Amino acid sequence: MDLQPVKAEILAAKMIPNVDAGLAESLALKPHQRSIGILTTNIDDVGYTALDAATKKADVEVVYGSSFYAGAAHASGPLSGEFIGILAGPTPAEVKSGMEVFCYTAENEAWFYALDPEAKHTFYAHVISRTGSYLSEVAGIREGEPLAYLIAPPLEAVMGLDAALKAADVRLVKFYKPPSETNFGGGLLTGSQSSCKSATQAFMDTVIRIAENPKVY
Questions:
Q1: Which of 2, 18, 41, 55 is 20 to 30 A off residue 217, Cα-Cα?
Q2: pLDDT tens digits, residue range 115-144?
């Protein structure tokens, strides 16, 4: 099957150089975090991956990240998409650097795959060789460990995760029970980088086989 990449679009990216004290308290900002960057995209899992990348290359932390219910097709507005993320840092320059990393990662380094020409049947299978502070905390692992980020429609996600766990020496550290806010499912797996790659390939192979023969059991 000829998989086609489905890349995310950055819908909005704005900065607040000096956050109001009330908003800072609501976001649980640390005393030194005076600036924030707010970003939205039309694909949530790419957004989470990009947030994590930002923490590795700039002095920023993720203070908020969330998916919108029903996904980009039912967004509340043209700049909403299906994801919002907020980065916080000590200065506007650091936050700007983090936002630049976020945008580059989302547009060039992480993407979904389409199983059909209309891109209605998609999945996410991405290996992060070294996690930043954000996904390390989400997964409950040490910062810098490898991670396989695997997402698919509900049935495909469950079947794919089982195949991934059996194919390599990896462990499931975060299970996204289907349906998620965007009606997908999946999980985060950790192990050596080579094991994460093998698990990711097994996940992909399984999702493809299901798409080719969905009713053969």
A1: 2
A2: 999 999 999 999 999 999 999 999 999 999
Query: Which helix (H) or strand (E) is 191 found in, with range?
Result: none
Q: 159 near 126, Cβ under 8 Å?
A: no
Backbone phi, then psi, for 131, in 5-degree steps?
-75, 150
Q: Structure tokens of 81?
A: 């998409």
Q: Alpha-carbon distance 88 to 95, whole Å?
A: 6
Residues 146 and 202 in one domain: yes
- Contact between 101 and 57 under an 8 Å Cβ cutoff? The reply is yes
Q: Is 1 inside any structural domain?
A: no
3-state secondary structure of 70: coil
Domain endpoint, select from 83, 110, 137: 110
Domain contains 156: yes
* Residues 31 and 80 both lie in one domain: yes
